[in-house]
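During the reporting period the student researcher (J.K.) took over the structure-prediction task from the postdoctoral fellow and processed the backlog of single-chain submissions. One of the processed entries is reproduced below for the supervisory committee.
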Amino acid sequence: MHDAREQDDPQVLALFHEVFGHAMPPQQWRWKYADAPHRGVLLRREGRVVAFYGGVPRAVQGPRGTHLAVQNGDVMVQPDERGVFTRRGAIYHVTEAFLSRHIGPGRAYEFGFGFPNERAFGVASRQGLYIEGDRLQTLTWSPLAGAPPSWWVREVAAGAAQLRAVDRLWRRMARDWRGLYIPVRDQARWRYRFLDAPGSHYQLLLVKHRLRGALAAVALREHPGHVEWLDYAGSRAAIGHAVAAVRRFAGQRGGKPVSGLFSQSIAADFAGEAASREPSNIVIPLRAPEPGWPQPYPWAGRLWLMGGDTDFL
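J.K. obtained the following structure tokens:
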């Protein structure tokens, strides 16, 4: 058992292909783990890579300042080990090793979060590794076909130059949701996540007022049957303008419906404008506390997350 580093990437990618049935391009892997010289924890048996548990650092703005958290993902185990979900199993060992080595008071990361489905969360929860920190809900909107923007507020496509406005929008956002824990959404984050992502195409829109300038920014991904709303930067007051802009974009793309994933902590803020709201099967886990740790966690139930916080959308 050891921390995985860049030199281990070829073997971890070979495990990825064996587990998921398709290859991840090395460029995409390097992009995902660009800020993580320690990719995660790797388990070998007789030289063979058996299991991996990954983690990417995320700066999170909370009520009392910035915290260094870790976003966990790429949890994988050799197919012939897959049925062993006991404390003797490989997947338990890499998960427990990452959590105990890297997350908690006095360790590299104050807390961690991820996006497993209910089944994966349930397994780790029963083993005493996870507790539930939040859940993602699915919001959907109908498109606005043929609806022009107002004279005062309109949306424009945003590239690298327009993303300079996101720094100002991020400051408003952190102020308006001061009581929540929000992974940082500044210009650098948006550039990395949406402009620099290899193999993916996202549509970024800047919602602008003729006199007051940028009100909000949204990140979208178009699919054959729907438009996916992945991210938002801006104030609470600008949400209505952002929703209208996203629905107009969907109307211009053949009248596709809009859907997005939002943590329970913020779903109600975005659920106006005739949105439907349904639970998803994605749970946000937190590390189960060790004896003597302060409880409850201040970030439990107070995470500001959207689909764009994941690494698989």
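The committee noted the following: Residues 239-252 form the longest helix (14 residues).
J.K. will present the remaining backlog at the next meeting.
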